[in-house]
Specification:
binds guanosine-5'-triphosphate, Rossmann fold, 14 strands, 384 residues, Spo0b-associated Gtp-binding Protein, Chain: A, alpha/beta, five-stranded mixed β-sheet, binds magnesium ion
Length: 384
């Protein structure tokens, strides 16, 4: 995942298709003088549908596709012919995409699974033709239903990565290096803070073809809650991880205190983050000897902890074992359920800083906005 291509917000304009009009036609043929009503139904308008697709990792593919229109239903016509349905438009999104109303910030829906579909905007129903309105007392209804109108809306799609393990640490703690060692991901690694500017995901293969997903997010610093460093911009990507892997480098002045600072920043962002399972990895342990390790071990915070080195490989396979065990340990909240019960707060739209582009550009005005009236369809048999 190239860093510049990580897009986790898009704003798009969607419109469903309107329903086709029912026809009010009467059958008129040479030797059938009173053929009766034979107007067909209008076709349903197409819907706008969101579908989860595990082959997408970002919303990049939607960045330049700002306006999405479904097709209108065609009008019904004579001889009971129904109008064609309008074409629905399916928007493929990565699993973990949440949709909000762009004007109010109101939460609309959440896509978590591959193949999951949610109708974002429903197409208008087609109107019934006059053939349906024939009754004992009215054999010649001159009435047919109009189609239902379309719906339209500005929508913001937000991606919250669905990873099992989220890495939490100060800049330069070795998060990206670990991800590069345990997965095929190739994040940028360098010996300065804020190398990682956008999240990276990697799939960690475990025994017997099993695997879990690890997310490397930009480093957090003290005061992130006040907007320092990269702030909280990326913290929502760990909101859905079922386990947080804290990383504190072995050369930190005070490992316990570093952990507390990280924990506190998470708490400021969303206290529910602290309900997740946690593991502490002391990274860069190749800089320690046994004496130092024992010394550090004696004063570690109370959570499953492990010494690792991504450079020498020390503790890496034990770390994978530990993570796997924790991920599958008698779950307080099973992974899948925790995704489902995630409470979505409404979005603070102005804070996202989208340009004010709520006007549709000229060339993309809606297709077929006028309801065209077809004369032939409207002809009545006046001998009736
Ligand atoms: N000695 C040693 N150095 C390491 C180890 N892991 C990472 N490093 C070095 O630490 C530096 C920072 O590593 P990164 O993986 O970029 O750190 P990061 O946590 O992703 O940093 P940000 O992206 O800035 O938040 C690099 O120079 C790495 O080579 C390790 O196990 N041992
Ligand atoms: Mg990094």
């Amino acid at each position: 995942m190239a860093e510049a291509n990580f897009v986790d917000y898009v704003k798009i304009f969607c419109r469903s298709g309107k329903g086709g009009r029912g026809s009010a036609h009467f059958r008129r043929e040479k030797y059938i003088p009173k053929g009766g009503p034979d107007g067909g139904d209008g076709g349903d308008g197409g819907s706008i549908i969101l579908r989860g697709n595990r082959n997408y990792w970002t919303l990049l593919h939607l960045r330049y596709q700002r306006h999405i229109f479904a097709g209108h239903g065609e009008n019904g016509s004579k001889a009971q012919r129904s109008g064609k349905k309008g074409e629905s438009r399916v928007i493929e999104v990565p699993c973990g995409t949440v949709a909000y109303d762009a004007l109010t910030g109101e939460y609309l829906c959440d896509i978590t699974d591959h193949g999951q579909e949610v109708v974002l905007l429903k197409g208008g129903r087609g109107g019934q033709g006059n053939q349906h309105f024939k009754t004992a007392t009215n054999q010649a209804p001159r009435y047919a239903q109009p189609g239902e109108p379309y719906e339209e809306r500005w929508v913001i799609l937000e991606l919250k990565l669905l990873a099992d393990v989220g890495l939490v640490g100060f800049p330069n703690a070795g998060k990206s290096t670990l991800l590069s060692v345990v997965s095929a991901a190739k994040p940028k690694i360098a010996n300065y803070p804020f190398t990682t500017l956008e999240p990276n995901l990697g799939i960690v293969s475990y025994r017997d073809g099993q695997s879990f997903v690890m997310a490397d997010i930009p480093g957090i610093i003290e005061g992130a809650s006040e907007g320092k460093g990269l702030g909280f911009r990326f913290l929502r990507h760990i909101e859905r991880n079922s386990l947080l892997l804290f990383m504190v480098p072995a050369d930190a002045d005070d490992i316990r205190q570093s952990y507390e600072i990280l924990l506190n920043e998470l708490r400021q962002y969303n206290p529910e983050l602290l309900d997740k399972r946690q593991v502490l990895a002391i990274s860069k342990s190749d800089m320690l000897d046994e004496v130092l390790m024992n010394e550090i071990s004696a004063d570690l915070p109370d959570l499953p902890s492990i010494f690792i080195s991504s450079i020498t490989g020390y503790g890496i396979s034990a770390l994978k074992d530990l993570l796997w065990r924790e991920l599958n340990s008698d779950p307080i909240i099973p992974v899948a359920a925790s995704r489902e019960t995630l409470v979505h707060r409404n979005l603070d739209v102005p804070a996202l800083g989208f340009e004010d582009d709520d006007l549709l550009p000229e060339d993309e005005s809606p297709p077929d906005a006028e309801d065209e009236w077809d004369d032939e369809e409207e002809s009545f048999d006046l001998e009736e």
